[in-house]
Write a structure and sequence with these properties.
CATH superfamily: Phosphatidylinositol (PI) phosphodiesterase
Radius of gyration: 18 Å
Structural class: alpha/beta
CATH architecture: Alpha-Beta Barrel
Distance between the termini: 25 Å
Shape: globular
Strand content: 15-25%
Number of domains: 1
Largest sheet: 8 strands, parallel, barrel
Number of helices: 9
Strand order of the largest sheet: 1-2-4-5-6-7-8-9
Oligomer: single chain
Number of strands: 9
CATH class: Alpha Beta
Length: 247
Protein backbone atom coordinates (compact mmCIF):
# COMPACT_ATOMS: atom_id res chain seq x y z
CA UNK A 1 0.00 0.00 0.00
CA UNK A 2 1.08 3.54 -0.67
CA UNK A 3 2.34 5.59 2.27
CA UNK A 4 0.65 8.66 0.81
CA UNK A 5 -1.64 10.46 3.27
CA UNK A 6 -5.21 10.40 1.98
CA UNK A 7 -7.01 13.73 1.68
CA UNK A 8 -10.46 12.40 0.87
CA UNK A 9 -13.32 14.63 -0.22
CA UNK A 10 -16.26 13.19 1.75
CA UNK A 11 -19.14 13.10 -0.76
CA UNK A 12 -16.92 15.59 -2.57
CA UNK A 13 -17.67 18.31 -0.07
CA UNK A 14 -20.58 18.77 2.32
CA UNK A 15 -20.32 22.54 2.58
CA UNK A 16 -21.14 25.33 0.12
CA UNK A 17 -22.01 22.89 -2.70
CA UNK A 18 -24.47 19.99 -2.76
CA UNK A 19 -22.91 16.70 -1.66
CA UNK A 20 -22.36 13.82 -4.07
CA UNK A 21 -22.45 16.00 -7.16
CA UNK A 22 -19.87 16.47 -9.87
CA UNK A 23 -19.53 20.12 -8.76
CA UNK A 24 -18.67 18.94 -5.24
CA UNK A 25 -16.14 16.41 -6.55
CA UNK A 26 -14.39 18.99 -8.72
CA UNK A 27 -14.26 21.48 -5.85
CA UNK A 28 -12.63 18.93 -3.54
CA UNK A 29 -10.03 18.12 -6.20
CA UNK A 30 -9.39 21.83 -6.77
CA UNK A 31 -8.65 22.28 -3.07
CA UNK A 32 -6.22 19.37 -2.91
CA UNK A 33 -8.16 16.14 -2.40
CA UNK A 34 -6.26 13.15 -3.78
CA UNK A 35 -9.34 10.94 -3.44
CA UNK A 36 -13.08 11.53 -3.56
CA UNK A 37 -15.62 9.45 -1.65
CA UNK A 38 -19.17 8.93 -2.84
CA UNK A 39 -22.14 6.63 -2.29
CA UNK A 40 -23.58 4.30 -4.91
CA UNK A 41 -27.17 3.03 -5.07
CA UNK A 42 -29.23 1.28 -7.72
CA UNK A 43 -32.44 2.49 -9.35
CA UNK A 44 -35.43 0.26 -10.02
CA UNK A 45 -34.21 -0.32 -13.58
CA UNK A 46 -30.65 -1.13 -12.55
CA UNK A 47 -28.81 2.16 -13.10
CA UNK A 48 -26.04 2.94 -10.59
CA UNK A 49 -26.35 6.50 -9.31
CA UNK A 50 -24.58 8.60 -6.68
CA UNK A 51 -26.82 9.22 -3.67
CA UNK A 52 -26.20 8.84 0.06
CA UNK A 53 -29.72 8.29 1.42
CA UNK A 54 -32.23 5.58 0.59
CA UNK A 55 -34.71 8.31 -0.27
CA UNK A 56 -34.54 11.40 -2.45
CA UNK A 57 -36.17 13.65 0.16
CA UNK A 58 -33.22 15.20 2.04
CA UNK A 59 -30.94 16.23 -0.80
CA UNK A 60 -33.08 16.48 -3.94
CA UNK A 61 -36.32 17.95 -5.26
CA UNK A 62 -37.75 14.43 -5.48
CA UNK A 63 -39.21 12.16 -2.82
CA UNK A 64 -39.57 8.49 -2.05
CA UNK A 65 -37.28 5.49 -2.14
CA UNK A 66 -34.69 5.53 -4.89
CA UNK A 67 -35.10 1.80 -5.51
CA UNK A 68 -38.77 2.33 -6.42
CA UNK A 69 -37.97 4.76 -9.24
CA UNK A 70 -36.59 4.27 -12.74
CA UNK A 71 -33.73 6.45 -13.87
CA UNK A 72 -35.91 8.27 -16.40
CA UNK A 73 -37.89 9.58 -13.40
CA UNK A 74 -34.86 10.40 -11.28
CA UNK A 75 -33.12 12.39 -14.02
CA UNK A 76 -35.92 14.96 -13.83
CA UNK A 77 -34.99 15.86 -10.23
CA UNK A 78 -32.20 18.19 -9.10
CA UNK A 79 -30.31 18.76 -5.88
CA UNK A 80 -32.09 21.16 -3.54
CA UNK A 81 -29.62 24.01 -3.18
CA UNK A 82 -27.73 24.33 -6.45
CA UNK A 83 -29.89 22.54 -8.99
CA UNK A 84 -27.30 19.88 -9.85
CA UNK A 85 -28.17 16.56 -11.46
CA UNK A 86 -27.95 13.24 -9.61
CA UNK A 87 -24.83 11.70 -11.18
CA UNK A 88 -24.47 8.26 -12.74
CA UNK A 89 -21.48 6.21 -11.54
CA UNK A 90 -20.19 5.58 -15.05
CA UNK A 91 -20.19 9.30 -15.87
CA UNK A 92 -18.29 10.21 -12.69
CA UNK A 93 -15.62 7.60 -13.32
CA UNK A 94 -15.20 8.66 -16.92
CA UNK A 95 -15.04 12.38 -16.17
CA UNK A 96 -12.65 12.25 -13.22
CA UNK A 97 -10.49 9.16 -13.84
CA UNK A 98 -7.41 11.21 -14.72
CA UNK A 99 -7.88 13.65 -11.85
CA UNK A 100 -8.24 11.60 -8.66
CA UNK A 101 -8.68 8.29 -6.88
CA UNK A 102 -12.15 7.05 -5.96
CA UNK A 103 -13.57 5.68 -2.72
CA UNK A 104 -16.82 3.99 -3.69
CA UNK A 105 -19.23 3.33 -0.81
CA UNK A 106 -21.57 0.43 -1.62
CA UNK A 107 -24.88 1.51 -0.09
CA UNK A 108 -27.22 -1.11 -1.56
CA UNK A 109 -27.07 -4.88 -1.26
CA UNK A 110 -26.01 -6.98 -4.22
CA UNK A 111 -24.54 -4.18 -6.33
CA UNK A 112 -20.88 -5.12 -5.99
CA UNK A 113 -20.76 -7.02 -9.29
CA UNK A 114 -22.30 -4.14 -11.23
CA UNK A 115 -19.97 -1.64 -9.57
CA UNK A 116 -16.98 -3.85 -10.35
CA UNK A 117 -18.06 -4.08 -13.99
CA UNK A 118 -18.26 -0.29 -14.29
CA UNK A 119 -14.82 0.07 -12.72
CA UNK A 120 -13.33 -2.72 -14.81
CA UNK A 121 -14.78 -1.35 -18.03
CA UNK A 122 -12.73 1.79 -17.49
CA UNK A 123 -9.67 -0.11 -16.19
CA UNK A 124 -9.79 1.64 -12.82
CA UNK A 125 -9.45 -1.21 -10.32
CA UNK A 126 -6.10 0.09 -9.06
CA UNK A 127 -7.52 3.59 -8.76
CA UNK A 128 -10.49 2.66 -6.59
CA UNK A 129 -11.12 1.85 -2.95
CA UNK A 130 -14.31 -0.15 -2.39
CA UNK A 131 -15.95 0.78 0.89
CA UNK A 132 -18.94 -0.45 2.86
CA UNK A 133 -20.42 -1.94 6.01
CA UNK A 134 -20.48 -5.54 4.76
CA UNK A 135 -17.01 -6.98 5.30
CA UNK A 136 -17.93 -10.30 3.67
CA UNK A 137 -18.87 -8.56 0.42
CA UNK A 138 -15.68 -6.52 0.52
CA UNK A 139 -13.71 -9.72 1.07
CA UNK A 140 -15.30 -11.20 -2.07
CA UNK A 141 -14.18 -8.16 -4.06
CA UNK A 142 -10.64 -8.63 -2.74
CA UNK A 143 -10.67 -12.32 -3.66
CA UNK A 144 -11.90 -11.59 -7.19
CA UNK A 145 -9.45 -8.73 -7.65
CA UNK A 146 -6.41 -9.10 -5.37
CA UNK A 147 -5.01 -5.75 -6.54
CA UNK A 148 -8.16 -3.91 -5.48
CA UNK A 149 -8.33 -2.01 -2.17
CA UNK A 150 -11.16 -2.35 0.32
CA UNK A 151 -12.24 -0.17 3.24
CA UNK A 152 -14.45 -1.48 6.02
CA UNK A 153 -16.73 1.16 7.53
CA UNK A 154 -16.64 -0.31 11.01
CA UNK A 155 -18.69 2.37 12.79
CA UNK A 156 -21.92 0.71 11.71
CA UNK A 157 -20.35 -2.46 10.38
CA UNK A 158 -22.55 -5.51 9.83
CA UNK A 159 -19.83 -8.07 10.52
CA UNK A 160 -16.93 -7.27 12.85
CA UNK A 161 -17.73 -4.61 15.48
CA UNK A 162 -15.14 -2.19 16.82
CA UNK A 163 -14.67 -4.07 20.13
CA UNK A 164 -14.18 -7.35 18.27
CA UNK A 165 -11.67 -5.72 15.97
CA UNK A 166 -9.65 -4.35 18.88
CA UNK A 167 -9.71 -7.74 20.63
CA UNK A 168 -8.82 -9.99 17.70
CA UNK A 169 -6.71 -7.44 15.87
CA UNK A 170 -4.49 -7.06 18.89
CA UNK A 171 -3.50 -10.72 18.59
CA UNK A 172 -3.56 -10.63 14.77
CA UNK A 173 -6.45 -13.08 14.47
CA UNK A 174 -8.55 -11.21 11.90
CA UNK A 175 -10.20 -13.49 9.32
CA UNK A 176 -10.50 -10.72 6.70
CA UNK A 177 -7.97 -7.91 6.65
CA UNK A 178 -9.17 -4.85 4.73
CA UNK A 179 -6.68 -2.35 3.38
CA UNK A 180 -8.44 0.44 5.29
CA UNK A 181 -10.84 0.78 8.19
CA UNK A 182 -12.87 3.96 8.58
CA UNK A 183 -14.28 5.04 11.93
CA UNK A 184 -16.32 8.04 13.08
CA UNK A 185 -13.95 10.75 14.27
CA UNK A 186 -15.23 10.91 17.86
CA UNK A 187 -14.52 7.19 18.30
CA UNK A 188 -10.88 7.27 17.15
CA UNK A 189 -8.34 6.27 19.80
CA UNK A 190 -4.63 5.66 19.76
CA UNK A 191 -5.36 1.97 20.43
CA UNK A 192 -7.56 1.75 17.32
CA UNK A 193 -4.82 3.22 15.13
CA UNK A 194 -2.15 0.99 16.70
CA UNK A 195 -4.22 -2.17 16.12
CA UNK A 196 -4.82 -1.12 12.52
CA UNK A 197 -1.10 -0.63 11.93
CA UNK A 198 -0.24 -3.88 13.67
CA UNK A 199 -2.32 -5.62 10.99
CA UNK A 200 -1.01 -3.51 8.11
CA UNK A 201 -4.35 -1.71 7.85
CA UNK A 202 -4.63 2.03 7.26
CA UNK A 203 -6.91 3.99 9.56
CA UNK A 204 -9.33 6.66 8.32
CA UNK A 205 -11.54 9.13 10.19
CA UNK A 206 -14.84 10.66 9.07
CA UNK A 207 -17.58 13.04 10.30
CA UNK A 208 -16.26 16.47 11.30
CA UNK A 209 -19.29 18.70 10.79
CA UNK A 210 -20.10 19.10 14.48
CA UNK A 211 -16.71 20.43 15.67
CA UNK A 212 -16.19 24.11 16.42
CA UNK A 213 -12.49 23.93 15.55
CA UNK A 214 -12.34 21.25 12.88
CA UNK A 215 -8.71 21.55 11.85
CA UNK A 216 -7.45 21.33 15.44
CA UNK A 217 -9.29 18.05 15.85
CA UNK A 218 -7.94 16.75 12.56
CA UNK A 219 -4.41 17.71 13.60
CA UNK A 220 -4.81 15.81 16.87
CA UNK A 221 -5.81 12.68 14.94
CA UNK A 222 -2.85 13.07 12.60
CA UNK A 223 -0.59 13.33 15.65
CA UNK A 224 -2.06 10.01 16.83
CA UNK A 225 -1.05 8.44 13.51
CA UNK A 226 -4.24 8.46 11.41
CA UNK A 227 -3.56 7.65 7.75
CA UNK A 228 -6.28 9.67 6.09
CA UNK A 229 -9.18 12.03 6.66
CA UNK A 230 -12.57 12.21 4.98
CA UNK A 231 -12.97 15.98 4.78
CA UNK A 232 -16.51 17.36 5.01
CA UNK A 233 -15.27 20.85 4.15
CA UNK A 234 -12.92 21.08 1.18
CA UNK A 235 -11.39 24.29 2.58
CA UNK A 236 -9.87 22.39 5.51
CA UNK A 237 -7.72 20.35 3.11
CA UNK A 238 -5.60 23.38 2.27
CA UNK A 239 -4.84 24.21 5.90
CA UNK A 240 -3.95 20.63 6.81
CA UNK A 241 -1.72 20.25 3.75
CA UNK A 242 0.15 23.44 4.63
CA UNK A 243 0.50 22.29 8.25
CA UNK A 244 1.88 18.89 7.22
CA UNK A 245 4.11 20.30 4.47
CA UNK A 246 5.10 23.84 5.54
CA UNK A 247 7.76 24.11 2.85
Amino acid sequence: MSSEFLYIGHRGTRTILDENTISAFLKAIEFGANCIEFDVRETKDGILVILHDKTLDRTTTGSGLLRNLNYIEIKEYRTKNYNDVIPILEDVLNLLKRKTQFMIELKDKNIKNKVLKSVNDQKLIKNCIFSGRNLQDLGIIKTLHPKSRICYNITKGLDVKINEFLKFGKIKKLIIKPDFISLRSNMITKKFIEVCHKNNIKSLAWDFLSYFDVTSHIKSLINLGIDGILFDDHRNIVEIKQWLNPN
